Every structure is written in C-alpha cells, then in structure tokens.
Amino acid sequence: MGNYYLDIETTGLNEFENKITTIQYVELERDTGKQLGELTILKEWELGEEEMLRQFIEKTTITNKYEWDFIPVGFNLNFEHIFLQARSEKYKLFPISILTRPCIDLHAIAIMMNKGEFRGSGLDKLTGKTHSGHPVVAWYDVKKYDEIIDYIKNETTEFVKWYMWLHKEMPELRKLWEKELK
Fold first, then answer.
1. What CATH number has the domain bearing residue 68?
2. Spatial distance between the Cα atoms of 60 and 125, rounded to a whole number of angstroms
3. What's the structural domain count of the chain?
4. What DSSP assignment string belongs to 46-113?
5. What's the whole-model pTM score?
6. How far apart are CA 153 and CA 164, in angstroms?
7. DSSP state, 17?
8. Which one of 64, 83, 84, 133 is most buried, counting C-beta atoms within 10 A?
9. Domain range for residue 162?
C-alpha cells in the first residue's frame, strides 16, 4: 500500500482551457505520514504537458490494477482529479482518475478545524505555508520557475508537517470520542 502526497499547479481553473504546469508527488509513510524520499516535481516548462503526464503515469503506480498501490493524499483532491483526468484524456493517455480509487483528502479536516467554515480553511491559513497559490500563474507567465519550485517545496513541507501531526493527534480524538460513547 503506497500513500503519496499529490499536488499540481496549473495556469488557471478551467481544465479545458488551462494546462497543468507541475505535478509533484512523494511517498508518505503509512503509519506516521512522514515523507519517504525526495519530492518529485515534473515540470511542464521542461517536458511539455503531454510528456509530463506520460512520465507521471510511467513513473508511478497510478495505473496498477491494484488500486491500493497509489493512494493520493492531498488537499482538495477534486481539483487534481478534474485536471489530471481532462488533460490525460486530451492527449489520449491513460485516463488519470484519482477519485475513483482510495484517497485521503485533508480539506474536510481543515474545514472542521475551522469550525465548519470554508472561508479561512485553506492550507495557507492552517499551516506555515507562506501564501496561497495565486502568484504561481503570474510567476509562470514571466518564467520565474525558481519561485514556483520554492513555493511547491514550502507547500509540501507544510502539508507533510500537518499530516504527521494529524497522524499523531487524531487517534487521541478517537479515544475521547470512544469515551463519549460509553
């Protein structure tokens, strides 16, 4: 069973008009959430979008019939799902469908940690992530690729830190809940 942090950056919000500029992923330890190995960042500006998607498909276990081999872990995975599926279909590649397999999306937990409110529940509001991803499109347009990479690394670090904290703290919440049931 492989849990993988998964995220993408895009040139906008429309999966048909905009393209994926990066796909980043790294394996996470199942029991602790700890990052295993180095973060892989596939870059459209080096590979082109089609080749970037092809390499993601070939370098991961996303196409394995055993769906537990690649379990996406992320924040608002519906966004990744929509883009990865539409863009892979555009190039007639294996249709990447991450929500039809087991996955772990922490966005719902962020909303609950924010008293049920969507506004203010972004990863940049709940972790040490430096800011939202809004500047990424502008950086891409002016070829500030190093800033995009720095942003991705910061986002990954902060996501993994929070995920590890949740691995440690959530079992304690379960114990409290089980006491309530008695």
1. 3.30.420.10
2. 31
3. 1
4. HH-HHHHHHHHHHHSSTT-SSGGG-EEEESSHHHHHHHHHHHHHHTT-----GGGS--EETHHHHHHH
5. 0.95
6. 16
7. T
8. 84
9. 3-181
Q: Which residue has the tokens 């996470």?
A: 28
The answer to whether 156 and 39 are in contact (CB under 8 A) is yes
Q: Express each pLDDT in 135-165 by its tens digit.
A: 999 999 999 999 999 999 999 999 999 999 9
Q: What is the pLDDT of residue 93?
A: 97
- Residue 34's SS3 state is coil
Check: CB of residue 43 under 8 Å from CB of residue 51. no
pLDDT 10s digits, 24-83: 999 999 999 999 999 999 999 999 999 999 999 999 999 988 899 999 999 999 999 999
For residues 70 and 61, the answer to whether their CB atoms sit within 8 Å is yes
- The answer to whether 96 and 25 have CB atoms below 8 angstroms apart is no
HSE toward the beta carbon, residue 165, CA cutoff 13 A: 11
